[in-house]
């Protein structure tokens, strides 16, 4: 077996952290041949809770878990990190304006970006889960000039998985029959889940659905607002499904996507599909040998164009706002 991979998880004592850590330690993040060392980052008040989780991890006697260290200092937590899962963030509270939210998160993701820049391993891969995920990833990335920009990604895999599940349900097929679904844009209510290039049992999904009203009035808003639906039902935000999506995102990035399919990842735009270069926006990507590539050459019709543009506009506004705050 190989040397352990260092996986840093921020917000480790939170609800996603609790759903995530055991799956990482059991080998689901990187595969059954790869031992992992967990490095947990929390704020000082939550270190004790993280220590409790570490006791439980110990009690699982996971063969692949090579150790757990807990930190309240970002510099230490990211020392030697190979995979960084940035989950902890400042949530929006009542009466908070977008500017306040971005500023509060800048106070978290700027120093974490600096710490990654200072201490990460050469092959570091970063996934930002904490919201606003795309812009938090942009903030972290812009404070890590020595790390290739494309290593900073934001999670839209939960949206991707939600869309696959809703589409499969509508068509009465298995989720595994749905391929090439795409989430475009921001991980927010403006995101665009695109079924025009998706396939179901080898046939075009939009043609199989053949119901524009369902698409525009049910499917798209249901996927985009699923987070709120979960909060309403559960009394708490998505946790296990978010952790599952983080596992999927990193697993596929490291191990590759299957032939004939792709996944959605928030990544720094290279200008493809008219998305301004540099913003972190969701695209259809394939992964191979630890690298991702944007799927090129998809025809974008007016219906899709309008929705991609709206979500991208929101991202450029967020970028402009954090620029004004001096965070990027
Ligand atoms: P919790 O509030 O349960 O946990 C967050 C944890 O982060 C807390 O333990 C807190 O102490 C810690 N934390 C805060 N600041 C920190 C810092 N500077 N360094 C280290 N740790 C810090 O939230 P949870 O439900 O786990 O959600 C975490 C984040 O994921 C939230 O921002 C949430 O909005 C976001 N989500 C993103 C999703 C996505 O698809 N991209 C979906 C699920 C989720 O809503």
TrEMBL record:
SUPFAM superfamilies reported in the protein's UniProt record: LDH C-terminal domain-like (SSF56327), NAD(P)-binding Rossmann-fold domains (SSF51735)
EC number: 1.1.1.37
Ranges of residues in domain Lactate/malate dehydrogenase C-terminal: 156-323
Keywords from the named record: NAD, Oxidoreductase, Tricarboxylic acid cycle
Top EC class of this enzyme: oxidoreductase
Origin superkingdom: Bacteria
Recorded GO MF terms: L-malate dehydrogenase (NAD+) activity
Residue numbers binding substrate: 92, 98, 131, 162
Residues at which NAD(+) binds: 11-17, 105, 112, 129-131
Family: Belongs to the LDH/MDH superfamily. MDH type 2 family.
The protein's name: Malate dehydrogenase
């Amino acid at each position: 077996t190989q040397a352990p991979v260092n996986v840093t998880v921020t917000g480790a004592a939170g609800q996603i952290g609790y759903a995530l850590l055991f799956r990482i330690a059991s080998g689901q993040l990187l595969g059954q041949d790869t031992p992992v060392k967990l490095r947990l980052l929390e704020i000082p008040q939550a270190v004790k809770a993280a220590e409790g989780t570490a006791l439980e991890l110990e009690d699982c006697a996971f063969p692949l878990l090579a150790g757990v260290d807990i930190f309240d200092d970002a510099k230490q937590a990211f020392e030697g990190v190979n995979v960084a899962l940035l989950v902890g963030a400042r949530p929006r509270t009542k009466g908070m304006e977008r500017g306040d939210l971005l500023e509060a998160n800048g106070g978290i993701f700027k120093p974490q970006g600096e710490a990654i820049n200072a201490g990460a391993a050469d092959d570091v891969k970063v996934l930002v889960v904490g919201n606003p995920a795309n812009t938090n990833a942009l903030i972290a990335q812009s404070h890590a000039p020595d790390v290739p920009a494309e290593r900073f990604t934001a999670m839209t895999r939960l949206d991707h998985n939600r869309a696959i599940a809703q589409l499969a349900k509508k068509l009465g097929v298995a989720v595994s029959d749905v391929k090439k679904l795409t989430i475009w844009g921001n991980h927010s209510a403006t995101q665009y889940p695109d079924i025009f290039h998706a396939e179901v049992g080898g046939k075009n999904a939009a043609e199989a659905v053949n119901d524009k009203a369902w698409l525009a009035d049910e499917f798209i808003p249901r996927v985009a607002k699923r987070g709120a639906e979960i909060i309403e039902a559960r009394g708490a935000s998505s946790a296990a499904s978010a952790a599952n999506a983080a596992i999927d995102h990193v697993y596929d990035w490291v191990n590759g996507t299957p032939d004939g399919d792709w996944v959605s990842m928030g990544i720094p735009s290279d200008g493809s599909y008219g998305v301004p270069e540099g913003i972190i926006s969701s695209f259809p990507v394939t992964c191979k040998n630890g690298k991702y590539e944007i799927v090129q050459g998809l025809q974008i019709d007016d219906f899709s164009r309008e929705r991609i543009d709206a979500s991208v506009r929101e991202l450029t506004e967020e970028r402009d706002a954090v620029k004004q705050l001096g965070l990027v």
